[in-house]
Structure formats: structure tokens, C-alpha cells
Amino acid sequence: MGAGPARLTRELGVDAEQIEPRGEFRAEIGTAFDLYRVLAERVRDGAGVPVVLAGNCGVCVGTAAGVGMEDLAVIWFDAHGDFMTPETTTSGFLDGMGLSIVTGRCFRKLAKSIPGFTPLPHDRALHVGGRDWSEGEREDCHRERVGVAADVATTIPALDVLAERTSRILIHVDLDVIDSKYGKANHYAVPGGLSPDDVVRIINICGERFKIAAVELASYDPSFDTAGTIAKAGARFVKAALSFC
User: Fold this and answer.
1) How many CA atoms lie within 13 A of 201 on its CB side?
2) Could you tell me the CATH superfamily of domain 4-242?
């Protein structure tokens, strides 16, 4: 999915700065957190609302730290829960732990090394569009007070509650949140999700209720999107969010 960001920049018609890790030694977890540290610094030092395009959902850790986590909420669009930990995962897939890292469930010491990072309170996270949950993942979200909404109808009241707690929001979109009948964002795309219009509607509601702190598109593999429908949807999402900035 590393090819996704380049394809999305072409769809958006923009140039993008590429973030590179600093360390010479390459290791899945260590290099990922190295990228998050560099991203956090770049976002912090930039102007305006950052738009982050990434192959991996864990990028949210760096973006959130960069924009500042005080008074921040995260809306997490994703077909999958991303709420696993090293103790609960059966796949060992780091990308399946992104929301857990942001909320301080795991990798606390590494996350602490990211400039500006503090764990996001669980009740300031809202997961939207999930339907391919790992075992126990949805139950963990409910138990730990992470909001869960399946569609537009359940998302609106959840955003109303969230707006009572905070005034800023980071919009994180794993593009496989889109129902696969509209196109496949990646190998993990599954049916039953949101339509592109649903996502735009929810983003518009976010813009009406919150100050948008950042926008992310993640986990897009253009080899599964030969017609370009998902790339076009991703561009719509970015433009919808930035229309409020």
C-alpha cells in the first residue's frame, strides 16, 4: 500500500512532501515509530491544516501528536477495528493496533518518544464503519468507552456527544471503510460499509461541529482500484474536510 499516497497526490493534483525515517536500522516496529516521530515534528512545524497520505493507519499517532492532543478528538473510519494489542492480536499486524496506540493501550514507551504525544482519552475516539472486527475487538471498544458507530444514523448522535467533550477533530480515513461494491481500496476491502456519499456527509457534520485539525487517508492500494473510483472518493473526502478550513 506504499504506492497509495503517490496515486492520491495525482488525484488531488498536488505535490506532497515525503517523510523518511531517520534511523539506518530497519525494523517493522522501530521504523514505524521513527516515521511517526518525523511526521509529528513536520506537522507541528507546518502551517495550515495538514493532509497526510499514508500506507499505514498507525500514522495517526504522529499526526495527532503534531497537531497537539489537547482538546482533540479522533474519528476513525475503518472497516477493521485497529484496536488490537500485542497481547490480543493473532496476526501480529502492527497496522491492526493503530487505534490502540493512539489511545495508550499498547506501545506506551515508544509512543512517549513521539514529540507532543499523550494518550488520547478513550471517550474522545469514535470508530465509524467497522464490520470486519477481530475476535474481542468490538467488545474491547465498548468496555473501554471508545465510541463505535456503524452508519450515518448512529454516527450523528455519537458526534453530538463527542462535541460536548472537545472542539477539535482529526479525521482519519482508512479507505477500506468504503463498501467494496463501490470499489476496492485494498486486499482487505469487504462489503457492507459506507458509501462515498456517506463518508462525505459525516465529514461535513464534523466540519459543522468541530474545528478540523488534520485529515488522513490511509491503507490504499491502487492495484485493487483499476477504475480509480476509490482514489476519486479519497480526493472528495479531503476536499470536503478542507472546505471548512
Assistant:
1) 12
2) Ureohydrolase domain (3.40.800.10)
DSSP result, 16-50: -PPP----SS--HHHHHHHHHHHHHHHHHHS-S--
Looking from the CA of 16 toward its CB, the CA atoms found within 13 Å total: 20
Cell numbers for 138, please give them.
468490538
Rounded to the nearest angstrom, the gap between the alpha carbon of residue 92 and the centroid of all alpha carbons in its chain is 19
Between CA 34 and CA 17, with CA 96 as vertex, the angle to 5 degrees is 40
Total number of residues shown for the chain: 245
Per-residue pLDDT tens digits for 138-180: 999 999 999 999 999 999 999 999 999 999 999 999 999 999 9
What are the tens digits of pLDDT across the range 73-113? 999 999 999 999 999 999 999 999 999 999 999 999 999 99
Residue 169 Cα to chain centre, angstroms? 12
User: Which amino acid makes up residue 206?
Assistant: C
Q: State the maximum Cα–Cα separation within the chain, in Å, rounded to a whole number.
A: 47
**Residue 197: enclosing H or E segment and its boundaries?**
helix 196-209
DSSP β-ladder status, 72-77 and 168-174: parallel
Q: Phi and psi dihedrals of 242, rounded to 5?
A: -70, -15
Alpha carbons 219 and 159: distance in angstroms, whole number:
24
> How far is Cα of residue 13 from the mean position of the Cα atoms in its chain?
22
pLDDT digits (tens, 9 = 90+) for 170-179: 999 999 999 9
